[in-house]
Amino acid sequence: MTTFTPAPGAAPTSRLIAAQTTYEIRTLLRNGEQLLLTMIIPVMLLVLFSATALLDVGTNRRVDFLAPGILALAVMSTAFTGQAIGTGFERRYGVLKRLGSTPLSRSGLIAAKTLTVIAVELLQVVVITVVALALGWNPHGDPLSAILLVLVGTAAFSGFGLLMAGTLRAEATLAAANLVYVLLLVLGGVIFPLDRFPPGARTALELLPISALTDGLRQVLQHGAALPARDLLILTAWAAAGLVLASRFFRWE
């Protein structure tokens, strides 16, 4: 006869993080607004401006110019806008507080959210790349340089997304995150080249994280350049500032 001995205790941290990550991904992909923000809008912009003459990019092929910028937009939509809104409402409805009473630690929750962002970005990159290739995109350059830019850009946008979600009311986060999304889409070189702006404005706009990520990806994937040090430095500075501020001021309740 077999005797079963109870063994109470929490599951291993890795299993808790994996379970939370799976839950976060499923919740995000079931959310129509989040799906529109992270998948549908970037693909629509890529197809619309690549297939029509609405955009003048000089001697560049439109899809070659647009694809890196749309990839940068996808990173921002997930790491900043989507994460800020989602985390803001989780904070408002007490989800974060309840999770704090479970065996999943706060560091585990942050790890799960980070893995969720990376998983969704991977899906975005696959979808956008397939669509861009179908439109005639011919990427160049070192994929590892592009991956490094995306990872540092993700850290930069995540830091400020969490800072916004952890300091503002959920409704204010919703409005502010969407406003920032639209402004950076227009002013960050994603669709409209920055050389169309006056020199003074262009110098300031080039310091934005979306501009640095867009330009860096464009230098690598369109022109086949080596890792652009200036863009990487700008993204690193934004990442350091955002993560430090988020860790200092984020309120879980």
Describe the protein in words:
The protein is mainly α and 253 residues long. The protein has one domain (13-249). The protein is 74% helix and 0% strand. The chain is built from ten helices and no strands. It has helices at 13-30, 32-51, 62-92, 95-99, 106-134, 143-167, 170-187, 199-205, 209-221, 229-249.
Radius of gyration: 20 Å
SSE succession: HHHHHHHHHH
Tally of helical segments: 10
- Taking pLDDT < 50 over at least 5 consecutive residues as the criterion, the unreliable ranges are none
Give the mean pLDDT. 86
Please identify the structural class as seen in this structure: mainly alpha
Which bin fits the share of residues in helices? over 70%
Given the C-alpha coordinates, what overall shape results? globular
Secondary structure tally: strands: 0
What characterizes the major β-sheet? Answer: none
Our measurement of the CA-to-CA distance between the termini, rounded to an integer number of angstroms, reads 50 Å
Topology:
Elements: H1 13-30, H2 32-51, H3 62-92, H4 95-99, H5 106-134, H6 143-167, H7 170-187, H8 199-205, H9 209-221, H10 229-249
Summarize this entry quickly.
The chain has helices at residues 13-30, 32-51, 62-92, 95-99, 106-134, 143-167, 170-187, 199-205, 209-221, 229-249. The chain has 253 residues and is mainly alpha-helical. The model has no long low-confidence stretch (mean pLDDT 86).
Based on the model shown, name its key terms.
253 residues; mainly alpha
